Amino acid sequence: MELSLYRTPLFEKQLKALGKTDRKGAQAAERAAEIIRQLAVDGWQCVAMMNKRTKRGELRVRKCLKYDLGSGYRLISLKRDSELFLLYVGTHDECDRWLNKKRGSKLQVEPEGFIFVAENVETPSGQVADTLEEEAVAQDEYEEQLFAKLSDPVLRQVFRGICER
To answer: What's the predicted TM-score (pTM) here?
Structure first.
């Protein structure tokens, strides 16, 4: 069964911010990128992916998969049928707080609100190709999705001081 992998622009920002922190954070960001590449290619049921999951699993949120990035960092995802949604990446404490806020709630995730992650093409240096154009396209897609959800009456209500003259 093929796996469809999704992420949000927020998740991507968290991953980039993690890479710009100290040495341990940068290593955790590299491990997260490697896990994402392996998930895109092999799916979550390959042995390498099962070994990277946290030992105790996750009971606060149903169908949640946590991956250990080492040095106290985690990656949190949600499994639904043949889809995997990348939700959060950060320190163990940050992830713990995020999960506590979501405890017992049924996370509503729809592919329309996420960006599809295709198999990444690697550059000769071994790093994932990351261009400004790709980021701009991802950001534009996200903004288009948000804009589609806004109606004229809602915008007029929000900006009523500007619109009413």
So the answer is: 0.64
